[in-house]
Amino acid sequence: MILFCQPLSPLLLFWGMLPSDLLTTHFRLDEPHKKALKRLGILTIENLLLHLPQRYEDISSIQSVGSLVKDQDAVVFGQLGGLNTRKSWKSRVPISEGWIEDGTARIKIMWFNQPYIAKMLTDGLYVKVAGKVTGTEGKLYLANPEVEKLDSLPIDRHDSIFKDTEQLDETIYPVYRETKGVTSKWFYHTVQKCFSSSVLDKLIDPIPEGILKRYNLPTLNTALIWIHTPKKAEHAQSARKRFAFEEVFYIQTAKAKERATINVSNSYIVKTEQSHLDKFIERFPFPLTKAQARTIDDIMKDFGGKHPMSRLLEGDVGSGKTAVAATTAYAVATSRPPEGSGKKLEFGALQVAYMAPTEILAKQHFESFIQYFAHLPIAIGLITGSGCMKFPSKGNPTKPTTISRTQLLKWVKNGEIPILIGTHALIYKSVEFKHLAHVIIDEQHRFGTGQRRALAKKDTRMPHLLSMTATPIPRTLALTVYGDLDISLLDEMPKGRKPIITKLSTPSQIDKVYEHIRSELKAGRQAYVICPRIDEPDPTKENALQLKSVKQEAQRLKEQIFKDARIDILHSKMTPKEKDTVMEKFMKHEVDILVATSVVEVGVNVPNATNIIIEGAERFGLAQLHQLRGRVVRGTHQAYCFSVTSKDSTGKSGKTLERLKALTQAKNGFELAEYDLTQRGSGELYGLKQWGLSDLGMEALKNIKLVEAARKEAQRLIEEDQELTKHPIIATKIATISKTLHME
Ligand code: ADP
Ligand code: MG
Q1: In the predicted model, what is the mean pLDDT of residues 342-349?
Q2: Using one digit for the tens of pLDDT, what is the confidence trace for 33-53?
Q3: pTM for this structure?
Q4: Rounded (to 5) percent helix, strand, coil in the chain
Q5: What pLDDT is attached to residue 457?
Q6: Does ligand 1 come within 6 angstroms of the Cβ of 323?
Q7: Is the pLDDT of residue 182 over 90?
Q8: Which residues does residue 22 pair with via DSSP β-bridges, in sequence order?
Q9: Is 492 in contact with 291 (CB distance < 8 Å)?
Q10: Could you tell me if the CB of 288 is within 6 A of ligand 1?
Q11: Angle 202-207-208 (CA atoms, 0-180°, nearest 5)?
Q12: Ligand 2 center to residue 422 CA distance, Å?
């Protein structure tokens, strides 16, 4: 009888639980909970199960209250109770007391002469308490312990899976990314409840079985259990590896599919004799480096193939990417279009579009190209937001001239201008080419198939694509985010460059640095000063780190250090027009010192600026510092880089300095990027967010074998099933990825 009056067993609530069920179907959630979960994107049971722990904590050092003995230094977790404050009747010293309880027992706590302590604490609080066990057996208490308030208690052995484990060699519990309203403990227990239903059996593993077997990865079910409730650290690791693989695999599959769609389109076949190219190359005022020659070869091979080229050219700042771009542009601009329908040769040549990320850079490329093409009857156009130009001018065949946009577009459309250089303005709808055969992109990470196709327009042929970058990223990241591209590496600097002199400095040594800069300014050189922030930090948030800001540092330098120098500033909050004006002035040497944030990173070339001071250097990744210092290795004068830490001793300064020392030793940016990946952890990898990888995915990048495996499997999958008709779950996943990666 009594049984009937009891509420239904909670287990029944989980009966028939499906992965797609809303959490609210099975769990009673109050409003704050619901809101918090929504913020984390967790609506369904499946969402919850795939909300993976961020890390694990070892609880083997936690003691239970019941086990405490006299004189022990104890650390216990529990709930406070019975708090009150009184005065001892003898000494009139205020005494606060209470107890802590952890499910095994309760122990008294006494604080002497700390009347405020009871005011800061309340009954029922979750706390961590650390102090000495005093008193006599049976009447033990903790005297003056330290108390730390907690959001929740760690899952302890008494209420967890660890309770019944025989081999308790590891005692780790998961810690989830918490948000206001949901604790790690809630996640843990709720996931456990899901596990007690049969929901795991209803999940479909999207990764083909063969792949899991080949790489010894756990199935989805097992991996979920292992990642949420590991009995051994090994299990957690193995499960994390699986999910990391899965993430990289989806990206690789998306990329492989993209590549496959490019491969079915036709391209312009460009076949150029080496002797023809040599004539162009011979006119460079330098011999090509081996790496440049090899890259040009790679590209010429692609040009002659059946499919459109998709190639990434990675090369440090100053490694000579422009010369490679110019040579390949030459090959294209001197090739004839294929025969038209009437079998007669069409007028003009194949065309090249060369896109730069900023107006300054577009102009610089235009000027370099004029030098390289000056002797040839090949017209070059420039299109930017603020105007258009054409080389050569009708009146003066050695000079460019300003022309109207309408005129330029007309000549591009009828094929009279074979080479068009520009900013993003290049891909506007109004720009139409006659035979666009080759697209070159400088420093543009996000340029997807969609944009490429848009450029091809009505033309049935897809242009070849050469994407160039100086952003040093580790090989694993390149293989992943550029999975659809073949990669060429310029890993060799032109000969005869004076290597930059890099010095590490602390604030107390800065006077010497300034002295050096003064002598350089006197000799007619210019300098950059890089600061980590734009403005002074909010003074109410007294930060331990005193980071220099562009505005204040510029003022200070002007008033106290370089009184005669012309100083200006550059940062990301300025409009493009303002930035251009300042850069123009710096280029013309109307400014001696440019105080800037890291915005100067991207490819600006001012050969006379041979000094760079980087303040707060420990804040930057090595690869980024390397790129910044690349700003000053353009000229023929000796270049200097001073990396200044923000404090004389930066905490674990030994490590910081050691890390910065790598800057003085590494051969190139890619080496530094690898170093960053292993030393600082992927989480801090420069520019992390733009790649759209989760923390777990970034972790995977430390494992080249895993990345290569994911790539190989993705390519194999697409070869077998290009439209992924047999793998609908994967198809859905990669549709989302393609969207976020390209913002198409
Ligand atoms: P980046 O790879 O950063 O775009 P650039 O193409 O701007 O580098 O080249 C940097 C400088 O090096 C330019 O002044 C260019 O003329 C010069 N340069 C390029 N290739 C060589 C080479 N093989 N030998 C000597 N100088 C070179
Ligand atoms: Mg460049």
Answers
A1: 60
A2: 899 999 889 999 999 999 999
A3: 0.74
A4: 40, 20, 40
A5: 63
A6: yes
A7: no
A8: 44
A9: yes
A10: yes
A11: 100
A12: 14
Nearest CA to ligand 1 atom 14: 634
Residue 672's CB: how many other CB atoms inside 10 A? Answer: 26
The residue whose CA has the least distance to atom 10 of ligand 1 is 318
| Distance between Cα 157 and ligand 1 center (Å) | 63
Q: What percent of the chain has pLDDT over 90?
A: 45
Q: Which of 319, 366, 605 to mutate to test the pocket of ligand 1 (most atoms within 8 A of CB)?
A: 319
What is each CA distance from 349 to 242, 338, 413, 415, 556, in whole angstroms? 51, 10, 12, 7, 56
In angstroms, the first-to-last Cα distance of the chain is 65
pLDDT, mean over the chain: 84
Q: DSSP labels for 341-380? A: TTSSPPSS--EEEEE-SSHHHHHHHHHHHHHHHTTSS--E
Domain boundaries 274-304+320-469, corresponding CATH code: 3.40.50.300
Residue 529: phi and psi, rounded to 5, are -125, 120
What would the pLDDT profile of 87-133 be if each residue is shown by its tens digit?
Answer: 777 777 888 889 998 877 899 998 888 777 767 788 888 888 888 89
CATH of 501-667, one of 3.30.200.20, 3.40.47.10, 3.40.50.2020, 3.40.50.300: 3.40.50.300
Domain boundaries, the chain: 1-51+180-203, 65-161, 274-304+320-469, 501-667
Largest Cα–Cα distance in the chain? 115
State the pLDDT confidence band at 446, using cuts at 50, 70 and 90: low
Segment 683-709 mean pLDDT = 75
Cβ partners under 8 Å of residue 449, min gap 6: 258, 261, 262, 484, 742, 744
Q: How far is CA 198 from CA 192, 250, 384, in A?
A: 12, 27, 61
CA nearest to 321, candidates 498, 424, 469: 469
Question: For residues 369 and 742, which has the higher predicted lDDT (pLDDT)?
Answer: 369
Please indicate whether residue 319, judged by its CB atom, sits closer than 6 Å to ligand 1. Answer: yes
Distance CA 169, CA 553 (A): 55
Distance (angstroms) between ligand 2 centre and the Cα of 566 equals 27
Same fold, 65-161 and 274-304+320-469: no
Q: Is the CB of 315 under 6 A from ligand 1?
A: yes
- In degrees, to the nearest 5, what angle opens at C-alpha 164 toward C-alphas 161 and 169? 80
Instruction: Please state the CATH superfamily assignment of the domain spanning residues 65-161 in this structure.
Output: Nucleic acid-binding proteins (2.40.50.140)
Distances (CA, A) of 249 to 8, 484, 690: 44, 13, 18
- Which tens digit of pLDDT belongs to each residue from 403-436? 999 999 999 999 999 999 998 888 887 899 999 9
- Predicted pLDDT at 447: 66
pLDDT at 127: 85
% of residues, the chain, pLDDT over 70 = 86
d(CA 378, CA 309): 23
